[in-house]
Structure formats: structure tokens, C-alpha cells
Specification:
alpha/beta, two-stranded antiparallel sheet, D-Maltodextrin-Binding Protein, domain 2, transcription, Arc Repressor Mutant, subunit A, 9 helices, DNA-binding transcriptional LysR family regulator, DNA binding, DNA-binding, 286 residues
Length: 286
């Protein structure tokens, strides 16, 4: 019986699903299934019963889960104590974010890797709802996300906010100027996807300016937004940081009274791993 087998078994028991358990551990589903089958073969017992919705524990599986959780908790505590001796020089840290909230994240992760080369970094992108669910499930140590409202059961650290800027084609008459938001009335908009904080901020600002934008495109990836704007397919209101990175060349206009956009760091209520706490300190500088 190997520690990895117990970790995989406990993940399947927690998620009641092999695929979701594999995703939470950042391993392939066949690899996870193989380890669980080996554990069952070694014990000579079936630990799970397949159902139409996933799996459920057998009586033997339920008994083993009690012991597995105790063992894994002891191992986690031992690793944490050893990390205090080694200065957290090893381990794994799992991060989640959306495409829209990630422009500065790759550089921050690269710098963290340079300082801590023996800490493995795993990054996952998803929708805002998926990112929150990953943190709530304890599948990631930290998430970077703009919030529409504080999610339940998570620790939230707000980061510095930034203004939204108007992104337009480079030869647009508004490029390089400062405008009032209502000057964009009637122009096609490229908006972030529904359910995102950026979209909510833009819609609130335009409604306060007396109009509702026509969303011809709903896109969260900064490079895609810039490409569509460059080709004259619409204008957008985007965080200023989106224009700091390399990408399709576009023009930009400032707003006289710009809406603000704020990212937050999310961690499980039980706390991040030692390596996760170390990364959290670095990401607080975003």
C-alpha cells in the first residue's frame, strides 16, 4: 500500500467521481484509475461501487477512508514541519485563474520558479465559477480572480485596483484622447463573458452613462480582444494591465472618470500549503 494510492483513493472518495478526482490532482484519469485498481487488488477488496452518477464507497472503502484521511493528515503535518526546517524549498503549489485575470500571472509564476526551482507549480484556467469551485474544494492553493461578490467559505485578499481604458483601433479618432464614456454610445462592444466581474463593471458604468452596449462579441482572453479591436470589429473597456503585455497593436483612450477593476487572491478557509503561502506572498505584489 503506497501513499500515492491512498491519496488517489481519498480524492475519488471525496469527489465521488474518477475524472473530477484526477483533475483535482492534476493527473490523468487512466493513471488514477490504475493506482486505485492496484490498491483494490492488493487488499483483495472492492473499494468503490459504480453508479449512474459516478461512484460510491463500499463498506470496506468507507472503513479505509477513515484510516487514509488520518494517514494523509499526519503526512501533511510532517511535511509542513519539515518545510519549516528547509525554508519551504520543495513541494507543489496549485494555482487557478481565468484568462481575463491572468495577464500578469505568468511573469509572477516565472519569477517565483526562479527563486524556488524545486517547488512545482501547477496552473489551471477556467471560468470564474470553476475557479471559485476549485478553491472551495481545496483543489488549488490560491486563485487570482476578479470577484462579483465575496464567495462563501474562502479567504479573500484584495489587490490594488486599476482603471479601465478604452481600447480602439490604432487609427481611431479616439486613440490617444481622454473621453467621456457616453461618447461610445452606438459603437459595437467586445464584452467579457457573462458571470465575470469585468462584464458587470462595464455594464454598470455604461448604464450609468445612459446607454447599454451592443455585445457583438463576448470574449475574456486579452489577446483575442485586442485582435478583434485591431480588425475594427468593436471597442472594449479593459483593465489597463491588458495593454502592458505584447500583443496585437491597438490604440487606447482614457476615460475622464474611469471605472476601476480589482483582482483578489482566494485561498481555502483551511489555509494554503506552506508552498502555497509562499506563493501567496509573491502574488500579493500583483
Amino acid at each position: 500500500m503506497e501513499l500515492r494510492q491512498l491519496e488517489y483513493f481519498a480524492a475519488v472518495a471525496r469527489h465521488r467521481h474518477f475524472t473530477r478526482a484526477a483533475e483535482s490532482l492534476y493527473v490523468t484519469q487512466p493513471a488514477l484509475s490504475q493506482q486505485v485498481r492496484r490498491l483494490e487488488a492488493e487488499l483483495g477488496l472492492a473499494l468503490f461501487r459504480r453508479t449512474s452518477k459516478g461512484v460510491e464507497l463500499t463498506p470496506a472503502g468507507a472503513d479505509l477512508l477513515v484510516h487514509a484521511e488520518k494517514i494523509l493528515a499526519e503526512v501533511a503535518q510532517a511535511r509542513a514541519e519539515m518545510d519549516r526546517h528547509t525554508g519551504v524549498s520543495r513541494g507543489v503549489v496549485r494555482v487557478a485563474t481565468t484568462a481575463a485575470d491572468a495577464p500578469r500571472l505568468p511573469a509572477a509564476l516565472a519569477a517565483f520558479h526562479g527563486d524556488h526551482p524545486h517547488i512545482q507549480i501547477a496552473l489551471r484556467q477556467g471560468s470564474a465559477a470553476e475557479v471559485v469551485a476549485l478553491v472551495q474544494a481545496g483543489a488549488v492553493d490560491v486563485a487570482v480572480l476578479a470577484l462579483t461578490e465575496p464567495p462563501a467559505g474562502l479567504e479573500v485578499v484584495p489587490l490594488a485596483d486599476e482603471p479601465l481604458r478604452v481600447v480602439v483601433p490604432v487609427d481611431d479618432e479616439l486613440a490617444g484622447t481622454t473621453i467621456a464614456l457616453d461618447q461610445l454610445r452606438g459603437r459595437p462592444f467586445i464584452l467579457a463573458e457573462p458571470g465575470t466581474a469585468l462584464r458587470d463593471t462595464v455594464l454598470q458604468a455604461t448604464q450609468e452613462a445612459g446607454f447599454s452596449p451592443l455585445p457583438l462579441f463576448e470574449v475574456g482572453d486579452p489577446a483575442t480582444v485586442r485582435f478583434l479591436v485591431r480588425e475594427g470589429l468593436g471597442v472594449g473597456l479593459v483593465p489597463a494591465s491588458w495593454l502592458e503585455r505584447p500583443g496585437p497593436v491597438v490604440g487606447a483612450a482614457d476615460l475622464a472618470d474611469p471605472p476601476r477593476h480589482r483582482l483578489s487572491l482566494l485561498t481555502p478557509s483551511a489555509g494554503a500549503s506552506p508552498a502555497g503561502r509562499l506563493l501567496l506572498e509573491r502574488l500579493a505584489e500583483l
